[in-house]
Amino acid sequence: TLLFLSLSLSLSLFADSLSPPVNVTIKALKANSAVVTWDIPEGDSVIGFAITQQKKDVRMLRFIQEVNTTTRSCALWDLEEETDYIVHVQSISMSGTSPLSEPLRFRTPKEAETQASKSKVTMEEVGQTTQLRAGELIIIVVVLIMWAGVIALFCRQYDIIKDNEPNNNKDKAKNSSECSTPEHPTGGLLRSKNNNNNRMPSVNIIEV
């Protein structure tokens, strides 16, 4: 008996040394559900958690316990809208449970408020999406205008080059006609001169 009492006393002392969870908060609060989150003090060897959920001014409790887990959050479900709740969190170790955390009090909203919050978020998302699409359209329009300008400049340069081609052909034809030899060779005069030079001079002999 003394051994059992000493063992129980040592276990209870070890369990008392386990610190309660800290930074207990509520997230994703809705009319019928919520999520409890918490932190574990550094150095505590924890294998699970226990949560007590109670309506304000009501003695009935809901007890949630989970072991072999390192999670630091738990979902609360089947809540009533516009109702006050009190939540405590405990850490579970191999030797037992920690003291209760500081009580966390919260109130669930109306279902209509939840729907309004959802619609507000949806409208904000739609507005952001619209802004992104408008920016994308502006970029596309600017790019198309730039491409249209490049194509128009190319067509204009092509027309100028095409218009200058007949004039270049005419100039080439004129230059070739000036440089070509006519049907009667230009050396005719020289030939006539040479022929004259090759004739023997005429000598008239007068007898007396």
UniProtKB/TrEMBL annotation:
TM segment ranges: 137-155
GO terms under cellular component: extracellular region; plasma membrane
Span of domain Fibronectin type-III: 20-111
Highest taxon, organism lineage: Eukaryota
Signal as UniProt keyword: yes
Listed Basic and acidic residues bias regions: 165-175
Record's bilayer topology term: Single-pass membrane protein
Keywords: Glycoprotein, Membrane, Secreted, Signal, Transmembrane, Transmembrane helix
Database matches in InterPro entries: FN3_dom, FN3_sf, FNDC5_C, FNDC_type_III_4/5, Ig-like_fold
Signal peptide: 1-17
Compartments, as annotated in UniProt: Membrane; Secreted
One Pfam family linked to the record: fn3
Main location: membrane
Tagged with keyword S-adenosyl-L-methionine: no
Comp. bias intervals (Polar residues): 192-201
Region (Disordered): 165-208
Entry protein name: Fibronectin type III domain containing 5
Protein's organism: Seriola lalandi dorsalis
Taxonomic lineage of the native organism: Eukaryota, Metazoa, Chordata, Craniata, Vertebrata
